[in-house]
Amino acid sequence: MEVEVTRSERRKKTVQARFIDGVLQVAIPALMTVDEEAHWVGEMERRFGARFDGDRVDLNERAARLASRHRLPVPETIEWSTRQRARWGSASIASGKIRISARLASFPLWVVDYVIVHELAHLVEGNHSPAFWKLVDRYPLAERARGYLIARSETGG
């Protein structure tokens, strides 16, 4: 994981970290010692590493398998996105590209699969019409996964 540390004169006690575009950005107080910096960088790597465990999921393999199983198109590309804060996923009919929020990387695989199926269905139906939901509901755990995602949304993801 790439790490970028910023020391701030205004920051007195707190440490803040964000994961943006594949880079863990850690903001620390300017007066922090080298040992304290190393401790907090390690701690933030541990915390964010648990959040973004994307290596455990082969999105291409899962999308191909789910597309075949549920009679949906295979995407041109599917990738994790660290930029999606308000959505679990997105799909472009024109390009066939799907992005899955990196927030899902630590979720149960049946939930990740649901979001993949949801986005695959968008490659056929660009809206949330009854025809779209009929495609999504081919996934047997769709209702359960929607409930899981709603609960996670209400608790901050």
Structure notes:
- The chain has 157 residues and is α/β, with parallel strands linked by helices.
- The protein has helices at residues 34-51, 59-69, 109-122, 130-136, 142-154; strands at residues 2-8, 16-20, 23-29, 77-81, 89-92, 97-101.
- The strands form 2 sheets. Strands 1-3-2 form a 3-stranded mixed beta sheet, covered by helices on one side. A 3-stranded mixed beta sheet has the order 4-6-5, covered by helices on one side.
- It is elongated.
- The mean pLDDT is 88.
Question: What is the element layout, followed by pairings?
Answer:
Layout: E1 2-8, E2 16-20, E3 23-29, H1 34-51, H2 59-69, E4 77-81, E5 89-92, E6 97-101, H3 109-122, H4 130-136, H5 142-154
Parallel strand pairs: 1-3, 4-6
Antiparallel strand pairs: 2-3, 5-6
